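User: I'm curious whether this sequence folds into something compact or stays loose and floppy. Could you predict its structure so I can see for myself?
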Amino acid sequence: MIPVDHFLESQGVAFCRYVDDIHIFCNDARHARSTLYKFADYLDKTQKIQLNRQKTHIHDAKDFKETCENNSLDKPINNLEQEMLKTVRSHTKSPYERVRILKLSNADLAKLSQENIEGVLTEYLDADEVDYIRLRWFIRRLAQVGAPGGVNFMVKRFDELLPAIAEVGKYFESAAPNFKGKWKDVGEDLVKLYDTDLVQASEYLQVVILSLFSRIKDLDHVNSLTKLYAQSSPMCQRKIMLAAAMANASAWLSTLKDAYKNADPWKRRAVIYSLRVLPKDAKDFWLKSVKKRVVGLDSLVAEFISN
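Assistant: Here's the prediction. I'll summarize afterward.
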């Protein structure tokens, strides 16, 4: 999207952009229409993409202000979500502060039950046009309290949640300490998902799934992940190494000692950090040879694992 920013700057207009949502500010309606036509033409000729007609509008200042104010308000999809949001807000006014689930009363926990969470998620995903902006907001609220009732549902309908995949990943990490189900079964489902055509078509999705294994030890299945290592991209290899370290797979990680020499900078740091799980004597011996040539961030990571 950087070339898009540069084009708009070249037109001398004020604008703000969040990912692919863009607001452009003009002096009057005629200027707005002219800019819109130029922008649409630019996108078609250089980016081979088109504006979403349903989401493209020209507003006057008053209408735009009202639209922004309406979008800033909570618009729960049903009464269940309204009660859940009210529960979270009763413990914090900040949308970023984490709330320990132990602070919640039995009545609060009942509102955040698996049945209720799945009910809200189902209504979002079954809508004719999924409101992913609101859905991402709801998942972030679940992550605030680590309410684990959506874990199994999200795995089962993972492909439908792709536009909210970053929030899903953070939610899994937050819910991990409170999830009473079998993480190993969830891990098995994630391994199967990883092998699907959908995930194999996107390195980003592969990284998101592997990142979960590097953060949640009980997902297990490290042997399945290490088998993927040789044919994986460098970014995915880093995540597999971190997942193996989380699972304390020191025997497999010890085979990667020499991978440090010819790796890219971020992979080198992943190698160093992952090898922290080697037996102390083996780790110290390897670090002694590595510290002679590490610089910058590599040296900081090496120093960290040597303590």
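Summary: The first strand starts at residue 14 and ends at 18. The longest helix spans residues 29-47.
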